[in-house]
Structures are given as structure tokens and as C-alpha cells.
Amino acid sequence: MTSTQDTIIGLDRKHRAIRGGNRWAVQRLLPDGKWDLVEAWDGNRRSLYHWMEKHGIVPSREAEELLGTLPENTGFRERT
Q1: Which residues contact 76 (CB under 8 A, 6 or more apart)?
Q2: Residues whose CB falls within 8 Å of the CB of residue 58, separated by 6 or more in sequence, listed in order
Q3: Across the beta sheet with 23-29, what order do the strands follow?
Q4: What is the pLDDT of residues 9-52, one digit of tens each?
Q5: What is the pLDDT of residues 57-76, one digit of tens each?
Q6: What is the Cα–Cα distance from 49 to 32, expressed in whole angstroms?
Q7: What whole-number distance in Å separates Cα of residue 15 and Cα of residue 76?
Q8: Distance of CA 44 to the CA centre of its chain
């Protein structure tokens, strides 16, 4: 699912999220160093937070900072 326009965010040591447009994918790092797709869905930024909470994943500080810089939806502009 990755392209040059996708954003990859390391959530913790074992999980990463990939955002392409309004589509998310979460992958898990396997013992052999390869990434396995856990789940993919269409949704806004908040949907990733809900997914992490549901699965007990606590994002790193760096992941939280990067997620905070992303718009809620692709094409969505924050009011200034």
C-alpha cells in the first residue's frame, strides 16, 4: 500500500501506521524483520487513535507529534 505520497509513522517498537489519502494501514513487525498487515481501513486521523486505543497500543511521543501535524482528513484545511 505504500507510495511516494504515503506517510509512515512508527507508532511503537512493533507497529507502524501508513496513511495514503484517507486510507490507513497498520502493520506489525515480525521476528524475521518483515512487516505484516494487521488491518487497513478508510478513515480520518481520529480513526487511528480509536484503533490504537481499542488494541492497547500506546504511541511514542514522536508518533504523537507527527500525528498532530497531519490534517484530520486529506483535503481538509484547518481554520486559522
Answers
A1: 44
A2: 12, 52
A3: 7-10, 15-20, 23-29, 35-42
A4: 999 999 999 999 889 999 999 999 999 999 999 999 999 999 99
A5: 999 999 999 999 888 876 55
A6: 27
A7: 26
A8: 10
Report the chain's C-alpha Rg in angstroms: 12
> Is residue 70 within 8 Å of 18, Cβ to Cβ?
no
Give the residue with greater pLDDT, 77 vs 5. Answer: 5
- Report which DSSP code applies to 51: H
Total residue length of the chain: 80
Residues 1 and 5: their CA atoms lie apart, in Å, by 11
